[in-house]
Design goal:
Helix content: 25-40%
Largest sheet: 8 strands, mixed
Order of helices and strands: EEEHHEHEHHEEHEHEHEE
Strand order of the largest sheet: 6-7-5-4-8-9-11-10
Number of strands: 11
Strand content: 25-35%
Bound molecules: S-adenosylmethionine
CATH superfamily: Vaccinia Virus protein VP39
Structural class: alpha/beta
CATH class: Alpha Beta
Distance between the termini: 46 Å
């Protein structure tokens, strides 16, 4: 029997100084205490060489494991909007989230970046999302948000991805978002020449990514982190 839309569970949040959300369920923060926006730019945008890649292509698709506060999405949207209009390609951002934040929690998490408020206002006109696939147009970018376990939903996505943001909390706290089977699904949904970036350099995650077919490199990590990983599907 159809029971209507099922709403996802709420995340278990605590707040650290500076409006940094901490998950008591996964024992990790949603973004770096040392600067969320800078971490996103360094790890995910620079790690995937997005500034160059937004130019000179017909269309670009980003995939993300863990939508969280939306910070990665808004930093990406901002970078895309700053690309000269006549050169920038249409952008689709596909993200997976098991526990969507409430509108109020997103507002609080993004308070440090008032420049994102207009983007957030746009998104929150249709919030909260329902279980399964949701589609939004935010300032010209298509956001496809899949609510539920990425392990179940990723195989249901028809699109292939140019660049992945692997952002599923510390792997030791959330193995389910870094396991071999999911990395294999990520690889299968990556275009030839596509890439991934992640802040973790955990050995078992690196081996999973190599084993499924990515060429993996270690780079200097953000802030005080020694290393992070990037890779390509060659
Ligand atoms: C580090 S946070 C992501 C931060 C986010 N990218 C941002 O910009 O704020 C990790 C996210 O992964 C989500 N998550 C954890 N397990 C998941 C799963 N199995 N499937 C989908 N999302 C999951 C968490 O709820 C959390 O929002």
């Amino acid at each position: 029997m159809f029971k209507g839309y099922v709403m996802a569970d709420a995340p278990k949040l605590e707040w650290e100084e500076g409006n940094v959300p901490f998950s008591s369920q996964f024992n990790d923060t949603y973004f770096s205490r040392a600067g969320g926006r800078d971490e996103t730019s360094y790890v995910f945008l620079a790690g995937n060489k997005l500034t160059e890649r937004f130019l000179g292509t017909e269309a670009f698709v980003i995939g993300e494991l863990g939508f969280g506060t939306g910070l990665n999405f808004f930093v990406t949207l901002d970078a895309w909007l700053k690309t000269p209009h006549e050169h920038r390609c249409p952008l689709t951002f596909i993200s997976y989230e098991l526990y969507p934040l409430s509108a109020q929690d997103m507002q609080q998490a993004l308070k440090s970046w008032p420049e994102f408020q207009p983007y957030l206002d746009d998104l929150l006109t249709c919030w909260p999302p329902k279980d399964g696939w949701n589609s939004y147009d935010v300032q010209g970018v298509t956001l496809k948000l899949a609510v539920g376990d990425a392990n179940d939903l990723l195989p249901t996505c028809a699109e292939s991805v140019d660049a992945w943001y692997l952002d599923g909390f510390n792997p030791s706290q959330n193995k389910a978002l870094w396991e071999h089977a999911l990395m294999e699904a990520v690889f299968c949904k990556t275009k030839q020449g596509g890439s991934f970036a992640t802040y973790t350099a955990a050995g078992w995650v690196r081996r999973n990514l190599q084993d499924v077919g990515f060429t993996v490199r270690r780079l200097k990590g953000f802030g005080r982190k020694r290393e992070m990983l990037v890779g390509t599907r060659d």
